From TrEMBL:
Belongs to the ABC transporter superfamily. GO terms for molecular function: ATP binding. It comes from Streptomyces litchfieldiae. InterPro entries: AAA+_ATPase (IPR003593), ABC_transporter-like_ATP-bd (IPR003439), P-loop_NTPase (IPR027417). SMART domains: AAA. Pfam families: ABC_tran (PF00005). Residues 2-227 form the ABC transporter domain. This is ATP-binding cassette domain-containing protein. Keywords: ATP-binding, Nucleotide-binding, Transport.
Amino acid sequence: MIELAELTKRYGAKTAVDRLTFAVRPGVVTGFLGPNGAGKSTTMRMILGLDHPTSGRVTIDGRPYDRLTRPLTYIGGLLEAKSVHPGRTAYHHLLCLAQSNGVDPRRIDEVLDLVGLTGVARKRPKGFSLGMGQRLGIASALLGDPRILMFDEPVNGLDPEGIHWIRNLMKQLAAGGRTVFVSSHLMSEMALTAEHLVVIGQGRLLADTSMARFIEENSRTFVRVRTPEPERLRDALAAAGVRPEQRPDGCLEIEGVPASRVGELAAEHRVVLHELSRQQASLEEAFMRLTHGAVEYQAREG
């Protein structure tokens, strides 16, 4: 488990992270979202001990990162996939990490096979594509077989097959009881991967909740109905105390009533329906609505 308590980081007069308190628990994929400049990367760097907090604390299974013996066996992190010595092969990069963390060298071949880099194990990563570099970074994170995994933009540079692979890998790791913390700007991908969300803006915590609740609380949910008999349906709904809103395209929109209830009322009054659907915003729409006032760099629409 990763736990943050009043975690704060200031750079001169600028507060990059402002009293963040939340926990990343095992068993689910937790998404970490925020606009550019929100403080996500700074937070992740403090988790790994790369930046020191101005105040507050962050612990990995109850201990700060710098007090972990063999830290790669506790937490594996992917922050900068290209942080590799240019003179070492992929294999020897992993070997250095294994030797410094007391990891059995036989584990190297396992993770290279897992990420699909066995064929280039003896090549230098400076010639790798962005996607291959990402795979090597993921192999480094998995090397110590840790209980906690943290990924920053893990699908960056991956092709569709690679994206599908890392998505399923994160889900499998969480299903096996591991803690998985992932940051990404790809909302569509996050919606398919994460079950829980931590959202920050301007360094402050905005949300710490399930994916379903986040979308529900930050979007408009309604039932859309299309019928050749709109007057009869409106009368049936009105008799039940339901007031639909007529849209320009002729459809009715109904809030606060389940789709099943609308269907039952239509059936009771023998009203023909051509469409009955529950409408809800996407993760991207909900995210934009929540973080609109916390965007540091905002382009003007033309």
